[in-house]
């Protein structure tokens, strides 16, 4: 069956997560797969890691919702709590003749102050509701209580610098969940360096843009996780792996052995690569599908080839040339 093109980056991330979840359901625990996402069309202005960061954030979030128990339910509860808190607060403020919470915040920030002290109330529920709204639906808790204590998803970055930036910018444990780019079950590690993290609760492991120079560490970390976690480790996902490089592993014996041990075992659960004239995509368990831009097609693209394996770059160009009468079949 052919693979359809996604409507957007968000759609692509959600589709990729569903493909990985479907693969896990078929293959079981300790499965390995890969996801390749490249919309650069050859533009090397940004590194692969930087250009795929937004996709990674949304993909990790969607897959955690699918495979980490309790994460999706926690977010749904926060959203429900937030909506209910807004309704209850409005009812209480109307009952006590107070200005709306939004207007009160605006008045507090405006020049010259306000008369909110004159309208203050002794109702503790009002302050509790305001706190819940300011924190995106998260109810008050003791600061010493961890936000998340369940199973975890771990992302290995190529180096400690990129992992540290993700800890700072992705904010999995932000006070307000709307400020978080990934769920609170996500933790960050790096390929190399001193490994002090507790991996005992890992159920999902991601290797994000691992390079050939990190291949040895990746193999060791993968083997260690599978040995120590066993069936608790649901899925290992390689996202945009670049593990074979002529300058590091070469394409000789070392490169072939690495492919046999690691790369060839990875099931392609999602693939999307944009081309100057179209795109190549695949969603597990469907086929790899080549699409060409076509202004007369309903969605702007028409399918020109579907196959069971990933075509090489020359094959993709041949498919285009044959379709457009530029070469013979």
Category by helix and strand content: alpha/beta
What sort of overall outline do the alpha carbons produce when their principal axes are compared?
Answer: globular
Strand content: 15-25%
Integer average pLDDT: 89
Secondary-structure element pattern, one letter each: HEHHHHHEHEEHEHEEEEH
Provide the low-confidence segments as ranges: none
Task: Please report the number of helical segments.
Answer: 10
Radius of gyration: 24 Å
Helix content class: 25-40%
Report the span from N to C terminus.
22 Å
Please state how the strands of the largest beta sheet are arranged side by side. Answer: 3-2-4-5-1-6-7-8-9
Major β-sheet annotation: 9 strands, mixed
């Amino acid at each position: 069956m052919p693979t359809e093109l996604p409507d957007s980056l968000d759609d692509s991330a959600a589709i990729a997560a569903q493909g990985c979840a479907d693969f896990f359901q078929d293959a079981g625990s300790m499965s390995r797969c890969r996801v390749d996402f490249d919309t650069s069309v050859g533009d090397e202005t940004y590194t692969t890691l930087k250009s795929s960061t937004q996709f990674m954030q949304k993909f990790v979030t969607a897959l955690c919702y699918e495979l980490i128990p309790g994460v999706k339910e926690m977010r749904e509860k926060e959203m429900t709590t937030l909506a209910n808190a807004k309704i209850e607060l409005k009812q209480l403020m109307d009952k006590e003749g107070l200005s709306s919470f939004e207007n009160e915040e605006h008045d507090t920030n405006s020049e010259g102050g306000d008369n909110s002290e004159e309208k203050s109330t002794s109702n503790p529920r009002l302050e509790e509701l305001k706190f819940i709204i300011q924190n995106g639906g998260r109810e008050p808790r003791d600061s010493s209580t961890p936000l998340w204590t369940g199973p975890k998803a771990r992302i290995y970055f190529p180096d400690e610098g990129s992992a540290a930036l993700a800890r700072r910018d992705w904010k999995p444990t932000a006070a307000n969940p709307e400020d978080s780019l990934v769920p609170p079950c996500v933790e960050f590690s790096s390929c190399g360096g001193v490994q002090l993290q507790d991996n005992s609760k890992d159920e999902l492991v991601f290797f994000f843009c691992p390079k050939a120079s990190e291949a040895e560490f990746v193999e060791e970390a993968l083997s260690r996780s599978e040995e120590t976690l066993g069936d608790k480790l649901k899925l290992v996902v390689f996202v945009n792996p670049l593990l074979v490089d002529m300058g590091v592993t070469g394409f000789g014996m070392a490169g072939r052995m690495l492919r046999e041990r690691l790369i060839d075992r990875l099931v392609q659960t999602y693939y999307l690569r944009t081309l100057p004239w179209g795109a190549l995509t695949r969603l597990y368990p469907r086929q790899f599908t080549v699409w060409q831009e076509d202004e007369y097609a309903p969605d702007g693209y028409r399918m020109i080839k579907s196959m069971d394996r990933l075509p090489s770059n020359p094959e993709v160009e041949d498919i285009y040339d044959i379709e457009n009468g530029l070469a013979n079949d």
